[in-house]
Amino acid sequence: MAIIVQKFGGSSVADTEKLFAVCKHITREFDQGNQVVVVVSAQGKTTDGLVKQIGEIAETPSQREYDVLLSTGEQITIAKLAMCLQELGYDAISYMGWQVPLITDGNHANARIEYIESKNIRADLDNGKIVIVTGFQGVDRQGNITTFGRGGSDTTAVALAAALNADKCEIYTDVDGIFSSDPRIITNVKKIETMCSDEMLELASLGAKVLHSRCVEIGKNYDVPIHVKSTFMEESCGTLIKNDRDNFEKLVISGIAKQDNNSRITVICDKILCEKKDSCQPYKVFKLLADHGVNVDIIVKSHDGTAETDISFSIESKELDKTLKVLKKYKQDIGAKKILHSDGLSKISVVGVGMVNTPGVAAITFEVLHNSGIDMHMISTSEIKISILVDADKANLAMQVLHDQFMS
Amino acid sequence: MAIIVQKFGGSSVADTEKLFAVCKHITREFDQGNQVVVVVSAQGKTTDGLVKQIGEIAETPSQREYDVLLSTGEQITIAKLAMCLQELGYDAISYMGWQVPLITDGNHANARIEYIESKNIRADLDNGKIVIVTGFQGVDRQGNITTFGRGGSDTTAVALAAALNADKCEIYTDVDGIFSSDPRIITNVKKIETMCSDEMLELASLGAKVLHSRCVEIGKNYDVPIHVKSTFMEESCGTLIKNDRDNFEKLVISGIAKQDNNSRITVICDKILCEKKDSCQPYKVFKLLADHGVNVDIIVKSHDGTAETDISFSIESKELDKTLKVLKKYKQDIGAKKILHSDGLSKISVVGVGMVNTPGVAAITFEVLHNSGIDMHMISTSEIKISILVDADKANLAMQVLHDQFMS
């Protein structure tokens, strides 16, 4: 008897009809003799509606109370889904995060899971019940409700699967798996049948919106196979994400992702000032930014030999104003002579485990972009990924030419 | 420093504007140096909306999941109200029933409070916080959410006041206290300034809709003064309900209440059959009805000397069909010869502690009704109450003439 964790997002459970449709996926696995745990999000746009109502009250509400309010969304879904399953003649029971309990740290609105007590759920499964758990929420050690931020329900599902030592975690979504790129931008996208966790991690963190990197990370660390499938297809093959790199078809490139709204900042340092004050060390710049809560993405440090030293890095555009303000305020301390910036950039990433064993992928990538008249503003590479910052208006073209080159 | 518990119902917290209006009552008491605990219901018609949504899924849903769903209503209110108070510069914290914890038995949808752990709330009050608690809900000893049924938020408030040994419990409502009768039916109703718990208990159980008898009972047992006030008046005198019978103004009659939709059933027994089978004992009839979940109200047993014995009793009309079916099925067992019934009756009740010391109230009541051409189908009296079943179409007239007699 296998234990299967299934997760259904907000659009999959948006109304009563859809709730009953979701029951088909649940009872199919249950009828085949499996133990099934279901994780659900809030129905449709419920969470957005609650956030809007908060806006009527306060601009910066207490994060604790924000979590109390938002957590009602999933609570409504679990009760309704349990009723639907019971109506179909199945024994089902709902759990809020605090009832599991699913213990988190105390970071309201962005909590991380610390521990899951799976005893009660196991007992219910052994008694033939289908167990339904709220996604996106837990409880801290003081008994306060916490929520998880973006991708929270996926994270709940994979973490529960890990705690239950489940055989797999199925993430149901509105597309039939992970595609080689965004079908709304690129023609001829391919569905990827199997993928390794590392590739998915790169894709997830680079803007592929199907899975959040937090849940892929847990899947990787606890060896939980994640199966991304379509809610709206009776038998969806989807994409299977597993830890094992070797057993996969050897695609050089498994995906091409895009992330819009990037900005680049370049700090040009005065070498004499720097030597005198022992400043202009990269660590000083990035410590300053970390202290002010700025998330830095790509970092490039170039030509160290001349009178000027450059440090360039990319950030999300929404953080540009704040970051510039901080850098200008502490200009003296970090020994900066000039601070340059450019906005309106997109990050294109080419990801694939096969890259490691295939020389020249970077060279081909740069050549293809050059031939299409696309400027590369920053480049960053890892073992299985190449990321390039390009002008936003050339980003879709860049994705298409790279997809044509590698995936066709 | 006094501890005050305030309760606001659904219409008092229906939208953001009203939530901020409610804050004025809370902060007024807090600013005067009191410790304030606030109990709230679900906003406006939220609970009705949730019940309607359940109707789309199941006719007889699991009571456990029903409670999980319904309890989200108050949860939304506590978070929003805490945010409102924080926005006004006050330190506020919300508690769900399970966070208090407010321990109940396991009777879903109709749970009774067993124990309230007040330690955390006391600590928060001592730290200068305003504490906001969900009405209507608690948690059983197995960690399941339970709700309380009708009047549940009032009950929560008075029970919390008892647990905290509070100085008083203020119940805010949309009228300015308890009136001598229903102002929608009777002209010249009087507001009652003070009232003893026993009178309120009789009025509450007899259909006066302002306070539920459960909460009055707790107030009586734990000696918590209950102050019923208007949400929508800045300084409402309202009605104060206290245990002490002696300190009250000596009104003979404090109120006249009406309860529609009553039915009367008469079981006529065959004396010979009864003697042979040792049946036709009242306990047999009422045990039968209790076993089938029928709540009986007034019971009258008359003339025992003839060949026929009558037992008459009243029930809510919605239980009439079920009750007749049960009685007919077990006709032989209870030794019944005939089963008669009449529907379309209303119960008029005249209540007042003063009645005990004022002879002739019953006589006057019956005379007034007789002179107005109102038939009395059943009569029941207690120390402080006279109830009469009359035809529904004469009920309002009965209330008016009795009110004119006793209250003007």
Mind explaining what this structure looks like?
2 copies of one chain form a homodimer. Chain A has 408 residues and is of the alpha/beta class. Helix content of chain A is 35%, strand content 28%. Chain A has helices at 16-31, 46-57, 63-70, 72-87, 119-126, 152-163, 197-205, 213-221, 271-277, 282-291, 320-329, 361-371, 395-407; strands at 3-8, 35-40, 92-95, 102-104, 113-116, 130-134, 137-140, 145-147, 168-173, 194-196, 226-230, 239-242, 255-270, 296-302, 308-316, 336-351, 378-382, 385-391. In chain A, helix 1 (16-31) packs across helix 4 and helix 6 runs parallel beside helix 8 (213-221). The interface between A and B is medium-sized, with 35 and 35 residues.
Measured by residues with Cβ under 8 Å of the partner chain's Cβ, the largest interface is: A-B, 35 and 35 residues
Q: How much helix is in the residues of chain A?
A: 25-40%
Largest sheet of chain A: 8 strands, mixed
As an assembly, this protein is homodimer
Name the features.
homodimer, 408 residues, alpha/beta, eight-stranded mixed β-sheet, six-stranded antiparallel β-sheet, 18 strands
